[in-house]
Amino acid sequence: MAGPEIIEHFLGVCASINDLAIRKEELTKRVQEQETTSSQNVGEAISTMFWLAEESPKVPVNMVPNAALSRAARSLSRSKTCLDHISEPSDEGNSPEKREQFLSELEDSVEHAMRDFGEWLPLLALRSGNIENLAARTMAINAAATAILQDARRQAGIELQELEKIKQAAREAAGEAGAAEFTREFRDEAKEATIRAWWWLGVTGILAVAALTMPVLIIFGEFGVPPTQVWEAAYITGWRVLAIAILFYAATWAGRVVLANMNLSSVNKHRGMSLQTLQAFHRAADDPAAKDAVVLEAARAVYENVPTGYIARQSAQQGGGARTLELIKNANRGSLESGGG
Questions:
Q1: Residues ≥6 apart with Cβ < 8 Å to 163
Q2: Do 207 and 291 reside in the same domain of the chain?
């Protein structure tokens, strides 16, 4: 086994190398800047040197044979000397040939130190109990990593719930915006239908006045001289009857157009009011079932045939829109139940 003097010398070399550990990154960078093609692993060699100097005092080096520990001390000491020459070159060391020599010697010295002392490290670690400590620390690290992972999952779940709320809010906002746009469209259409109804009402009035005035004028003989012959009487009577019939038919047809436009105006006003009511109740309702009921009732109010009184034989029947919404609602509920199960 190694003697006290060799152990003291070895540990002193390790301490001198550890004193440079604070400049490890700086020294590695400066050495790598001088690295040549024949010495490509100098950075790794420097890391190995600092690792040996840091880990060696932690194990019982007195169990290493005297010759092996002495060679390792010389190799590490030579490695530090080469590193000093390379990092702070003298006038002589500034030449490329000298730097190449120091780089090569640094790699060789670290390799020898690993061969002489590194092979003893596993046994020494086992002897000192570091392996058991390493296993305990590994378990602690695994437990900490598991806790971090669980916390990350919990945080991800919270963020996912927030994203779902944001998505739901955006969906509701989009729905309200769409309902507002449709409300405006229905109201504009109702106004246009009302304007058309009033225009056709004027046409209907003119045709009705003409259809009623013409028979009066015919009775009082305001349409020329009475006919003297039979065929003339038949001809004049025929076209007069035809003209009066056309005027009455035109007045009736124009009146139906008025009723149709008034019906369309009333229906669109009703639909706009239904969608406006939908928005108000949908904002106020918190229960999803209540919101579904509001949407379905609004759909029925919008899509069903609403009796306005302007068109005869008009009945309220459930439209295809409400049935479609019922089907979509049931399909979504079924998919949610199957997914939750």
A1: none
A2: yes
Domain check: are 168 and 249 in the same one? yes
The 10s digit of each residue's pLDDT in 161-216 is 888 777 776 666 666 666 677 778 888 888 888 898 899 989 889 988 888 888 88
Check whether residue 123 and residue 242 sit in a common domain. Answer: no
Contact assessment for residue 322 and residue 328, using Cβ atoms and an 8 Å cutoff: no
Asked whether residue 273 is domain-assigned, the answer is yes
Domain assignment present for 141? no
Q: What is the pLDDT of residues 62-82, one digit of tens each?
A: 666 767 777 777 877 887 787
pLDDT of 171: 65
DSSP string across 2-48: --HHHHHHHHHHHHHHHTTGGGHHHHHHHHHHT--TT-TTHHHHHHH
Q: 102 with 93: CB under 8 angstroms?
A: yes
Burial class (CB in 10 A: 0-12, 13-18, 19+), 17: buried
Which of 110, 128, 146 represents a domain boundary (last residue)?
Answer: 128
Domain count, the chain: 2
CA atoms within 13 A on the CB side of 93: 15
- The answer to whether residues 31 and 103 touch, using CB atoms and an 8 Å cutoff, is yes
Judge whether 233 lies within some domain.
Answer: yes
The boundaries of the domain holding residue 44 are 4-128
What's the confidence (pLDDT) of residue 80?
77
The reported pLDDT for the residue numbered 199 is 92
Answer yes or no: is 205 within a domain.
Answer: yes
Q: Which of 105-119, 136-150, 194-208, 215-229 has the highest mean pLDDT?
A: 194-208
Please provide residue 33's backbone torsions phi and psi, each rounded to the nearest 5 degrees. -65, -25
Nearest one of 264, 254, 255 to 193, comparing CA atoms: 264
Radius of gyration of the chain (CA): 51
pTM: 0.41
Tokens of 18: 């550890």
